[in-house]
């Protein structure tokens, strides 16, 4: 079955069924136009591997999901498939409403543009109008605490500053689903606490959260449900406490 994105019933925020995507070693495996038209499942070629395979989940609106697993087990890939920035090789992805993705620090930002220009560009690409950005601009900059660097090219910012401005923009989007992938680990402690309070506010407002982290305390703070991925397979879909217990039992370490 082809990978598609569609709006599902009102009790579903995200649904995947038999989701799979393959990569080539050192680069993404290509899927031909004929494959897409015919729904064809190519044989796995030499040097290819499945980054995710046969992953089926159902997420209801307002759920907070923690995605757990070692590095390279498919966590970030799952978020990118939900965000629509990757196309699956098999299975389906259904997403109700839009997503606010905080997946990669540099995602959507242009190095040679200033911070000011990047705020307008990135927010605009995510559907905010110029008037909406104008109304939120001061709040975004105040949240990021980056006023002295407004007219500095984005490429000259530290990784921590990039996280600040990215989170400040993405967290202002009105999308019902928020995807957060490890990037908050880069910020300083004070800013992380500010981000956490913002996530609490979004969850209280009914947002759906997909949260990838190796920080067990953060996973328990925000999430009630967990997905444990290993070698591209969904090992366990259960409460976050059960998932972390199983993960720690398997690997003898924290998430």
Can you describe this structure?
This protein has 255 residues and is an alpha/beta fold. It has helices at 33-38, 75-83, 115-125, 130-144, 159-170, 189-204, 216-222, 240-251; strands spanning 14-24, 27-28, 48-59, 64-68, 90-95, 99-102, 177-181, 208-212, 225-230, 233-239. The chain is built from 8 helices and 10 strands. α6 (189-204) links the parallel β7 (177-181) and β8. Mean pLDDT is 85; it is low at 1-8 and 32-40.
Which strand order does the major sheet show? 6-7-8-4-9-10
Biggest sheet, in brief?
6 strands, mixed
Strand residue percentage: 15-25%
The portion of residues assigned to helices is 25-40%
Task: Write down the overall mean pLDDT.
Answer: 85
Helices and strands: which structural class? alpha/beta
With helices defined by DSSP (H or I, 4 residues minimum), what is the helix count?
Answer: 8
Shape descriptor reads globular
Radius of gyration: 19 Å
Straight-line N-to-C gap: 33 Å
Number of strands: 10
Q: What is the element string, with H for helices and E for strands?
A: EEHEEHEEHHHEHEHEEH
Low-confidence parts, pLDDT < 50 over ≥5 residues? 1-8, 32-40
Describe the structure in brief.
The chain is an alpha/beta fold and 255 residues long. The chain is 35% helix and 25% strand. The N terminus is likely disordered.
What attributes characterize this protein structure?
255 residues; alpha/beta; six-stranded mixed β-sheet; 8 helices; four-stranded antiparallel β-sheet
């Amino acid at each position: 079955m082809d990978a598609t994105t569609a709006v599902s019933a009102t009790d579903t925020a995200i649904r995947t069924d038999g989701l799979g995507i393959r990569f080539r070693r050192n680069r993404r495996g290509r899927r031909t136009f004929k494959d897409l038209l015919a729904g064809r499942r190519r044989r796995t070629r030499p040097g290819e591997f499945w980054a995710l395979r046969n992953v089926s989940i159902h997420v209801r609106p307002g759920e907070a999901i923690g995605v757990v697993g070692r590095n390279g087990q498919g966590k970030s890939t799952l978020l990118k498939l939900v965000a629509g920035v990757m196309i699956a090789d098999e299975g389906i992805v259904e997403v109700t409403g839009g997503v606010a993705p905080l997946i990669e620090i540099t995602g959507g930002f242009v190095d040679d543009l200033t911070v000011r220009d990047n705020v307008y560009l990135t927010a605009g690409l995510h559907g905010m109008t110029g008037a909406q950005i104008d109304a939120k601009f001061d709040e975004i900059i105040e949240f990021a605490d980056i006023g002295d660097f407004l007219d500095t090219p984005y490429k000259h910012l530290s990784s921590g500053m990039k996280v600040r401005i990215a989170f400040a923009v993405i967290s202002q989007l009105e999308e019902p689903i928020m995807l957060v992938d490890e990037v908050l680990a880069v910020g300083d402690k004070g800013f992380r606490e500010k981000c956490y309070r913002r996530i609490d506010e979004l969850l209280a407002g009914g947002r759906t959260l997909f949260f990838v982290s190796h920080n067990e305390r953060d996973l328990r703070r925000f999430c009630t449900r967990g997905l444990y991925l290993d070698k591209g397979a969904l090992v366990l879909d259960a409460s976050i406490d059960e998932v972390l217990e199983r993960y720690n039992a398997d690997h003898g370490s924290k998430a």
